[in-house]
Amino acid sequence: MRRGPIISLAIIWLSILCSALLQVMPLPPFIDVYIRPHWMLLASLYWCLSMPYRFNIGSAWVTGLILDVLWGMPLGLNALAFGLCGAFIVSQGHKIRSYSVWHQALIFMIIVAAYQWMSGVMISVLDNAIIPKHYYFACFITLLAWPWIFFTLRRVRRRLFLS
Amino acid sequence: MKVIFGRRFPTSIKIIIIIVFTSGLIISSESLSPVKQYISTLLSPLQFLANAPLEAIDHISNNVKSRETLISENISLREMELTLSDRLLKVVHLEQENARLSALLGSPVITTQKKLIAKVQVVDSDPFKLQVIVNKGLQNDVFIGQSVIDEHGVVGQVIEVSNYSSRVLLIADNSHAIPLRNQRNDVRLIGLGKGDVHQMELQYVTKNTDVKIGDMLVTSGLGARFPEGYPVAKVTGIENRGNEIYSKILIKPTAQLDRIRYVLLLWPDTPIQEPLTSAQQQ
């Protein structure tokens, strides 16, 4: 039993909204700074990886736009970074999909670091923001978060027969 | 359904499209603020939901407070109320006297009248900005540029409003500066945020300016953003380097910017003419 594209898209965007919820949930500063994975980026990249025909660069861009509004950043800043990360995954997805989960986690950690670098450069140019020293530490938790996100969303995809 | 040749655009074209789109957004960000306001109103349920666990914990801790703590809290609050009302009696008298004196001098008296208590909703996790979201928005006539204080001093100003919530930039953010006045000798100063909630800096203070450690700095009312006379910061350190014209002066905000839960929104008595609306009228 396969679902139609509209239901699949609805479920995908629902999962993106759930990740947004995790992203903006207030947490103690230590957790917030060091061990909060970048849920929205990882969720949108999972869908780029597994279903590029439903969710790809444009959708990743919209996801970034949602994060821009939630964080109150200049519109389009996270959007561009999300879109570029999504583009990388879409173009290399056939290779990355065949790797083991831990190998994928390593790649995604590098992508998250690249995303942080991109958005950091853009915000410091646009808004004269100072990048705190601990900013890049947050990418390491991706190593542990990616397997969890991968298996959870894969279960969602298989149980609900998304296509 | 797997589509092999179904791609409408190749990836490279898509990348170019999103880059063009994004630069369009960034260039026209000034005129897009209504759109942003609309989207953030649309997303406000998400923020309420994200804040729900914290609210629940708050609620529980309020409910399970023991009788003794409530009684002791009550007593201390009552004592505080007595001392405050005593001071308030004097303030009313002083206010009248001040208004009369200002009238004699011919300078207009600017007072704030409407006030509203707002609860801090989400302490934002944007890593680059010191800002909080409060639970009052356009529904309560909050406007951009409004000053926000708490019980100890100035907290910041509103930079973005949606229907049910608004975003407050703290005075310690590194894109924020606030006009100040030294309470001891009325020297005018500018307090600059550095991205640290415990420390700010005074800008362009020449070495012979009379500033001492422990001086209380209040808002000067210049710039017509913040009302006059609210405490902002205390001077905590002065560094004089031999080869520089200006001395480096560190100040500490009196408001506890890292643990604010309730803030007060202030409305000016005379409505501020926003530059945008006046431009539209012309």
Structure overview:
The complex is a heterodimer of chains A (163) and B (282). Chain A has 7 helices and no strands. With 163 residues, chain A is mostly helical. In chain A, helix 3 packs antiparallel against helix 4. Chain A starts with a helix and ends with a helix. Chain B has a domain of 154 residues: Rod shape-determining protein MreC, domain 2 (Thrombin, subunit H, Beta Barrel), CATH 2.40.10. In chain B, the strands form 2 sheets. Chain B has a 6-stranded antiparallel β-barrel. Chain B has 282 residues and is of the alpha+beta class. Chain B has 5 helices and 12 strands. At the A-B interface, helix 1, helix 4, helix 5 and helix 6 of A face helix 1, helix 2 and helix 3 of B.
Please give the structural blueprint.
The complex is a heterodimer of chains A (163) and B (282).
Chain A: H1 5-24, H2 29-34, H3 39-50, H4 57-71, H5 77-96, H6 101-127, H7 142-159
Helix pairs in contact in A: 1-3, 3-4, 3-5, 3-7, 4-5, 5-6, 6-7
Chain B: H1 11-27, H2 33-42, H3 44-63, H4 67-105, E1 112-123, E2 131-134, E3 147-149, E4 154-161, E5 166-170, E6 177-182, E7 188-196, E8 199-203, E9 216-219, E10 231-239, E11 248-253, E12 262-268, H5 275-281
Antiparallel strand pairs in B: 1-2, 1-12, 2-5, 3-4, 3-12, 4-5, 6-7, 6-9, 7-8, 8-11, 9-10, 10-11
